[in-house]
Amino acid sequence: MKAIQIQRFGGPEVFEYRDLPDPEPGEGETLVEVARVGVNFADTHATRNDYLAAQQLPLIPGAEVSGRTADGRRVAALLGSGGYAQKVAVPTATLVPLPDEVDDEQAAAILLQGLTALALVERCARIEPGETIVVEAAAGGTGTLAVQLAKRAGAHVIAPGLTEDEGFLVDLGADHVISRDGDIAAQARELESGGLAALIDTVSYSPDQLEVFAAALAEGGRVASPTRAAGEGPGRHNIGGSAEGGAIERLAELLNDGLEVPIQRTYALEEAGAALADLQAKHTQGKLSVAVAS
């Protein structure tokens, strides 16, 4: 099979497009022929070996795939690694059946960032109708989903972005687009003098950044972040990220109900390094995807 493999840790420059043996499924595993791979910031951490879990070389990166089993079932899966390949062995119990209404590209694009956005908006921020919130990195993969989910919850959404992101974010539902390169907390206070109900932090602010932003929150305001490294400020922060049971099924329902996963660009497997480089440049809108030819 064709795959992207790395022999040393680093950035996109360490990606090698190689011929490798097909994986041999072990007990309790199913071989999946990959159709699409979602590109995520988690991939950048894995290839540098600075992620939560230590990585082993040689490594095939990639944590989010959709494809088909040998008996023709359409499935998606979250992986520890192995996604940037034509085939991957996946624990059978973790396979997600795909309904006909959800295509391969949307399926591979929604799992990791969709679960994160759901947890941030619904479980951590606990948004109430009419509240004003900020969605940081609103034009990114997780941010675009968080904007839409927050609007569905009835929030008034402030979205930091670049000048070229304004129309894109307004189309997704943002009520105000502010400068991503300016003082986000100060700009938000100007729009909501009474204080913000919540910050949806999709970029894992440092503890110092969170403390700066806390000054823009109303009494009882929340900060929802995908990392627990920041800890919790008294009465201020609700930090979390993991999804509760049934969340994947809920994502499928939301896709059927009009939730959009904006795909900015789809790359060939041999272009996966370029996809990662574009993601790291932070000038993308929505999701990047890799199409895997069989």
Describe the structure.
- The chain is built from 8 helices and 14 strands.
- The protein has 2 domains: 142 residues, Medium-chain alcohol dehydrogenases, catalytic domain (Quinone Oxidoreductase, Chain A, domain 1, Alpha-Beta Complex), CATH 3.90.180; 99 residues, Rossmann fold, CATH 3.40.50.
- The protein has 294 residues and is an alpha/beta fold.
- Helix 2 packs across helix 7.
- About 6% of the residues have low confidence.
- The radius of gyration is 19 Å and the shape is globular.
- The strands form 3 sheets. Strands 3, 4, 5, 6, 7, 13 and 14 form a 7-stranded mixed sheet that branches. Strands 10-9-8-11-12 form a 5-stranded parallel sheet, with helices on both faces.
CATH superfamily of the largest domain: Medium-chain alcohol dehydrogenases, catalytic domain
Q: What's the gyration radius in Å? A: 19 Å
CATH architecture of the largest domain: Alpha-Beta Complex
Which CATH class of the largest domain? Alpha Beta
The low-confidence parts are: 228-244
End-to-end CA span: 8 Å
Tell me the domain tally: 2
Number of strands: 14
User: CATH topology of the largest domain, which one?
Assistant: Quinone Oxidoreductase, Chain A, domain 1
- What is the percent of helical residues? 25-40%
* Residue share in β-strands: 25-35%
Largest sheet: 7 strands, mixed
Count up the helices.
8
Can you give the mean pLDDT? 87
Structural class: alpha/beta
Tertiary shape: globular
SSE order, one letter for each helix or strand: EEEHEEEEHEHEHEHEHEHEHE
